[in-house]
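Minutes, project check-in

Agenda point 3 was the complex the collaborators sent over. CS summarized: four entities, 724 residues total, and the question is how they sit relative to each other. Sequences were read into the notes so everyone works from the same version.
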Amino acid sequence: MAQRDGQQCARPTLFDVAKCAGVSIATVSYALNGRPGVGEETRRRVLDLAKEMGFRPNRLARGLRLGRAHVLGLLIADIANPTYTEIAAAVVNEAAVAGYQVFLSHAGVHGELQRQQVETLLDQRCAGLIFTSVVEEDRALLEQIHAAGVPIVQVIRRICRIHADFVGTDEEAAGYAAATHLLELGHRCLAMAAGPRTSSASRLRAQGVRRALAGAGVEMPARWSVEGDLTVCAGYALARRVLARAPLPTAMICGNDVMALGAMDAMVDAGLRIPEDIAVVGYDDMAFASSRLIQLTTVHSPHAEMGKHAVRRLMERIEDPELPVQEILVKEHLAVRRTSGNALCGASISPYPAEPEEIRSR
Amino acid sequence: MAQRDGQQCARPTLFDVAKCAGVSIATVSYALNGRPGVGEETRRRVLDLAKEMGFRPNRLARGLRLGRAHVLGLLIADIANPTYTEIAAAVVNEAAVAGYQVFLSHAGVHGELQRQQVETLLDQRCAGLIFTSVVEEDRALLEQIHAAGVPIVQVIRRICRIHADFVGTDEEAAGYAAATHLLELGHRCLAMAAGPRTSSASRLRAQGVRRALAGAGVEMPARWSVEGDLTVCAGYALARRVLARAPLPTAMICGNDVMALGAMDAMVDAGLRIPEDIAVVGYDDMAFASSRLIQLTTVHSPHAEMGKHAVRRLMERIEDPELPVQEILVKEHLAVRRTSGNALCGASISPYPAEPEEIRSR
DNA sequence: GCGGCTTATTTAAACGTTTCAATTTCGAGG
DNA sequence: CCTCGAAATTGAAACGTTTAAATAAGCCGC
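CS then shared the predicted structure for the full assembly.
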């Protein structure tokens, strides 16, 4: 039994509170959950007592009884990628607002490990799952999850014709904007180091680039259109390959900022100046992109907002599983910086606050 | 009842399997858990059937019964910081190996939000908690968790005299090594933009720097020793302050790489060349640090290894709560690059593989 | 004073495990 | 043939909730 006052007992249960309050367990449960049918005076007494005793509901028991835990699963392919961590942060925060905890899974893309993690997530009776980078091969898995009655939201990447909501940006438009920007600067020799074809986002972006080029009547030789993983190393290798022999392009669009970083390294190695000899555009606007030493022109997409939307949508669907599948697009924009010729002039585009923040000397 | 063969039923339980196998629930449980006292023939039959039916144990039920879930809580102050995400990745992976899932909490440092998240974590009956950035104010919270019988591992930062293991690096030695490196290069005018004093790691590092200086008989004017948050903005503001008036230091040690990035921006703004006019040393060796455009000299600490150790230690302690408190130090090392004068010569320190990886042209 | 109605409260059954204790089975030894 | 003991198996309680259904308690009008 819970000893009253002084030290609260280790972990009082409904039973303990009920005993102390001299009522039944059911009454305590009803009172704590704010359900009707409990006398005003009783309710107050129970609430006060529960607080005093430090009662906290056991979420396992609740989940077991309800057949569903107040828990979400977040699947991230690559946690080292800032894009995903920004989303993760937003997801965790927004979930907390709704009283949900988030299981983090870091299992790459479409493998045995991923399948295993998903199984475990289902074993935990997650109320919903958020996938940050599905590939076509995951279709069967997603369908199985849907069959199990667990709603899914896809973020950034997606597979089509599947019963799952999607939150992302208009990647095609982003690619179009990036290419158009370079075309307007007068570039006619564009290269593209795209992300993997398996990513719907990368595919669409490349598509947008091609549409812009076609519109301007500009051709991109096959040798300049390469694709690889979204890593520094891949960016380096791809750029090296493109720059291996003349003629050289005057601009390069990269699958993301990290690839751009690698590509720029290859350009430096090749003795090229950026942006005088070659312009570079990235994607994601990672933290380092706005650094003075880099100043990478890139497409900024609001990842935090995407994470937030993903959770909200999941909440809606958990509430009402019959909702029609929805596609939520958030607005992205091109951040023009030095690597496409926009030399930093003045503090107008400085990432730093005008007034220095608090500084403590010692 | 579970229909056999063909489509497995939604989610068979022990009961369903038992019914199909014609044995009791208890037998199935014993068989699946590999406990003794089950006939060999029965065991095989049950195992096969469970697999065929797609049985998966309900982790909520198990956790409820056991009074403890196979779940860890990971508290990260700032998920945007790559240091922490590297740790997170390792933690999630290593936990998976042990059959544990990881709850991710992103609740800053010592606030109402953090307390709330911890409470929820305890409500979920986490078997253990990993804290990545405790501050002294968290002491009461950690003690409360310990009192609740939930083991804790502190990573990177720590508070002393508390019943919790610690995994980190020898920060004092790292600070000493960084400063010694600069002293050996002939620098005598060193500045330091340290991380916040509330971080044990930052404190120790600063201490190591001072020890090195004292050993060399070098003085660091108070005006050159500043501290701030581990952000780009803080780095910029601090460096700006130090560089505001002559005399200027010839080298600056920063609290981490991100701060160094900001500080270098301030140096560029001040018309200084790196490393000719001023050398810079960071800490963490984040992804961008080795980029050709940056080549930041920095202290590389093996975060993944730390995450792994943290989980392993937690497992040991969950196994045997009576273990004496342990302090695990992993080795870090100084990566000397351009910003301290080590110009990149040849591919000897290139971060890229010699052979280009697979490239697909299209 | 008593059915009938509303409101407050309780009883008890789930949810799916694990595990102690009790029961059955079966072969060996007497 | 009977008994004993080990091994296999089962029954049932427990973990801490939620909730449908049953019960108790008021209260009104006739």
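Noted in discussion: Residues 23-27, 30, 36-39, 42, 61, 63-67 of chain B lie near DNA strand D (CB under 10 Å from a C1').
Follow-up: revisit at the next meeting once the mutant set is ready.
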